Amino acid sequence: MKKIFCMLLLLLLPITALGETLTLSFIGDCSIGEAIQHKDKENGYTWMLEKNGYDWPFSLVQEYLKNDDFTFANLEVVISNRTRHVDKVFPLITSPENGQVLLHSGIDAVNTVNNHCFDFYVEGYQDTIAALDQLPMKHFGSVYIGGKYAQDVLLETEVKGVKIGALGFTYPQDSDVKLIKQRIEKLRENGCEIVVASMHWGQETHPTQNSWQMKLARQVIDAGADIVWGHHPHVLQPVQFYHGGLILYSTGNFTFGSMSSSVDRDTGIFQVSFDLTEDGAQMSQLRVIPCTTTGSGDYRPYEWTEEEARQRVFKKLIYTRETANMVNLPASFAETGIVTIKDGLPIEE
């Protein structure tokens, strides 16, 4: 009887695809809408969707997002029909119908907490969550923790027998480190082998991270995260490694309905691969698909094919200053956009 019970237990446990590779993709800010004052205007995001369909925004990069194993994106828009909004220049919104764009994108999960998630007050955020659940689309994000309007959703999902967890914070402060650590610990206790910490942070349009971000990233990795995935600056920022963890400070804009013409349109698809071994999932490679995104009337990101443009993107990701206990991408990355990772460190090739 005991033998039969053990066999049944083994059948219920996730089966890791040993010898295979697990690839996670990360993209930056996706608004799939526009500022409410521009809604329904010619050449706007809503106008474009009505003209070209829900599969249009990601149509030029779908092959990468659908052929990986799991794709994360930052959803920077309120999905709602509400009109009452906070007093700000660009309250971002899209209709619940347009949320279907996500189902045609190759995206598997979205971070929902950022500086636009409450543009239409708490009710607008609640509408967003309801719309994502209705699609359905996996999502995560923690905000107003412990308060009346708290939202505290962690992602737990399984891919190729590997359990992946994710948490999201916006404008994280030193006081949030304890809260972040608690959520990482919960994901680990629930069996997550890979943990992603989404951070909506940094200085808009600034080409490099700030020192406080470097400190906080180290704290988040020390707390147990494998990948710190950043967004908000709307431009690409460098990549670093620390104690076996990977830090993507800013993954740029990807498809954005209210983007200033002065913002750098370079962006990318950040693909992190793990070798699935008897010792667990081992981070083995970072590959960046260099892209640019488009504006009015189009809004589609597409891959750079010109070698000069590709290398320009790669160079933006190489931090040139030395930081204690942190490792930058090697110079060879500027040529290939690929780096092999061993024991949590990039290898010069």
What count of domains describes the coordinates?
Answer: 1
Stated plainly, the CATH topology is called Purple Acid Phosphatase, chain A, domain 2
Give the class-level CATH name: Alpha Beta
Spans of at least 5 consecutive residues with low confidence: 1-13
- C-alpha Rg (nearest Å): 20 Å
- Report how far the terminal alpha carbons are from each other: 55 Å
Structure notes:
With 349 residues, the chain is an alpha/beta fold. The chain has a single domain, classed as 4-Layer Sandwich (Purple Acid Phosphatase, chain A, domain 2). The protein is built from 8 helices and 21 strands. A hairpin with a 2-residue loop joins β9 (155-159) and β10. The protein is globular, with a radius of gyration of 20 Å. The termini are far apart.
